[in-house]
Design brief:
heterodimer, A: 113 residues, mainly alpha, Helix Hairpins, 4 helices, 0% strand, elongated, B: 164 residues, Four Helix Bundle (Hemerythrin (Met), subunit A), membrane (chain A), transport (chain A), NADH dehydrogenase (quinone) (non-electrogenic) activity (chain A), NADH_UbQ_OxRdtase_chain4L/K (chain A)
């Protein structure tokens, strides 16, 4: 392998930070979930890179990335189900509108009715 | 420059472009498609690293299943007239940008100052993954099976229309 492992680590860091920016600033709920998937994927790149060309190359990293893929699939399914139920009940996909747990009690009660 | 480096640069460019378009584009459907492109490029990186099994699982699960799931999630909700009213907390956008960029800088600084020895690649096979999965990680494997079953049932229960 002629590509150094640092390249893979830097690429994973870039993808992770793009996903983090998406989670923090986007307002559409589907895009927030997609950004979380992107962050999980960048962690997978790290695991597979260390498993293939790391200092202690081993198969364990690939097994771990399989577990991460499993958990990500379960998370996407449940997250999208919650999103659809939320959209049906509150009729909005905007993240900022979903603040029932906020301190502004009067406003939350008024939006419920 | 070897062939591996050229392929790495092409795949990394596709992945980063897809991720950026996922965050920056306007229409939701275009964003989901660019996410699929990023996932495809990441599976190409796995093939480059000699992890074929993980690459194929990535294509099947992410490009096949999760992208379709997101397309359905987009279709079932509001996607045509996305006009959010102006965000009263515009400073949150700036704080998010600053924090993620500074985290990126810290990570890159840490990675480049690390001194990792260069090893000749280790090529794993599906057989080795299966032996490890049914050996040392058996309990975790069964646990992930339970997790998937619970997620399946939970997703159906949460998303179905409540009977009156």
């Amino acid at each position: 392998m002629t590509v150094p492992i640092s390249y893979f680590l830097v690429l994973a860091a870039v993808l992770f930070c793009i996903g983090l920016y998406g989670v923090l600033t986007r307002r559409h709920l589907v895009i927030v979930l997609a950004s979380i998937e992107l962050m999980l994927n960048s962690v997978n790149i790290n695991l597979v890179a260390f498993s293939a060309i790391g200092p202690y190359a081993d198969i364990t990293g690939q097994v771990f990335s399989l577990f991460v893929i499993t958990v990500a699939a379960a998370e996407a399914a449940v997250g999208l189900a919650i999103l659809i139920a939320l959209y049906r009940n509150r009729d909005s996909i905007d993240v900022i509108k979903h603040d029932l747990l906020g301190t502004d009690k009067e406003k939350s009660v008024s939006t419920l009715q | 420059m070897t062939a591996q480096e050229i392929f790495f640069i092409i795949l990394a460019l596709i992945a980063v472009t897809g991720a950026l378009l996922l965050v920056l584009l306007k229409p939701i459907s275009h964003r989901v498609v660019s996410m699929a492109f990023a996932f495809m490029a990441i599976s190409g990186l796995y093939f480059l690293l000699g992890a074929e099994f993980i690459g194929i699982v990535q294509i099947m699960v992410y490009v096949g299943a999760i992208t379709i799931l997101f397309v359905f999630g987009m279709m079932m909700t509001e996607h045509r007239t996305i006009v959010f009213e102006r965000d009263p907390r515009l400073s949150h956008q700036a704080i998010g940008l600053i924090s993620s960029v500074s985290l990126l800088g810290l990570l890159i600084f840490g990675i480049l100052s690390m001194d990792l020895p260069q090893t000749e690649g280790y090529v794993g096979s599906a057989e080795a993954i299966g032996l490890e999965l049914y050996g040392y990680f058996f309990v975790a494997f069964i646990g992930s099976a339970f997790l998937l079953t619970a997620a399946l049932i939970g997703a159906i229960v949460v998303a179905r229309k409540e009977a009156d």
